[in-house]
Amino acid sequence: MTSISQLTEEEKNFTRFFLLNFKVSPDIARRYFDVKFPPAHLALTINNNMNAIMKLNKSRIINAAQLEILRGVPGTIWPSYLPPMTAGVGSTATSSKDFDLTMMICLLRNIGGLSKPSNGWDRLPHPNDTLPGAALATLKWYRNQLAHTTVTSFDNNEFQDKLTMVETALQILNNGQRPNEVTEILNYDLDGDQAKLLAKDDLEQLKKVYLDRGKEKEQIESDFSHYRKGNLPIHIAEENATLVETWMKDDEYFHETKGSELVYDQMEDCSCILVTSNLGFGKTATIRHVAIQYKLKGFEIISVESPEDIIKYKTNEKQVFLIDDVLGKYDLDLTLLDNWERINEKLISSIETGHGSTKLLCTLRLNISLHQRFKNATTILNKVVINLEQETTSLSKEEKQKILMKHLMRSNLETEIETEEVDLMCKTNYAFPLLCKLVVNNEKDSEKNNIL
């Protein structure tokens, strides 16, 4: 084995390139990151983009280890459904100094508005692409190449070509200036005592890289083994279990109506139902209530966001999938509808060949369901549409009274409202369930103010 003082020129080339990528590149990238996300406002940035970050974690773009580092940033506020942090991890405050190159690029891409390189994020950018996104993609590319390489030497031509790419990327991120650290690396004495110190530093860097890779590999293998056995991915199952627990508590105060009974009865004979109405008529509460009834029959409830998620998370178990505002919240999202049409056959094949073991419940606002483009669409969503406001399912006076009393009882306010007030409220036809909720919340706020 060659000693540190006997390195060939080719081995020195490799050593310098390694140091450039694992010592200099992360520091320069971090400087750029801190300009885009100033450290003093990092917690606020994370909090303002919490939904996007949790989606990245859900899709494993941000892994569990990276999420714990983000959770350690002082001042961040995380969803209550997340499990407790690993012992010892949360005891020390974190900052961008703890972010690896991959996570910095991920955050810059997804919440920092970083432009996509011409060749995409996972290929070596074209030399003529001089935008910051391309520069960061270049650094990531060479870092990953080195992390998996089996070679330990570069000839001069290869070294110069790679060096030019990385140095150019670093200059782009460093306001067009060559970082001083690059010059220092290229001038390192790799034949004397300094070389021994560098070799030790190299070893520590490599240990960290391979330990991190090893942890990711173990997690992926464990998750894959669990999924291969016909289970939902662990993080999806945990997230849904937390959601369903909350829904079941809310459902204790749900009152059965003609609409909810119709949805339940129709689900016996079909695989997908779309529940529609205007705002405040209880669409979401209805599909959650029906899903909970199916849970009692052994079904697993999974809240998803897209038709691809249904195909992705379908297992051999009995499942009921839920999607709120399936084609947009306020107006018809034509891109979403096109997507449902594009994979409709695949989706039907996935759902309807399960012998009734897979169900799909969705909600959509009435104005969108009446859109001609939706009516003409060929999707599984068009098969069975139940309008909670139509004559056969609209709330009766008796149903309204019982719904209102359920809301009042939940907050121990049933004795605080007069019969005349109940009768007056029950004459309301628009958004009655939402009105009940608002009235109860208003009573509770008034009670608090009187106490204060």
Automatic annotation (TrEMBL):
InterPro entries reported for this sequence: HEPN_DZIP3, nSTAND3
Novel STAND NTPase domain location: 254-409
Residues covered by the DZIP3-like HEPN domain: 86-194
Pfam families cross-referenced by the UniProt entry: HEPN_DZIP3 (PF18738), nSTAND3 (PF20720)
Domain of life the protein comes from: Eukaryota
Name of the protein this chain belongs to: DZIP3-like HEPN domain-containing protein
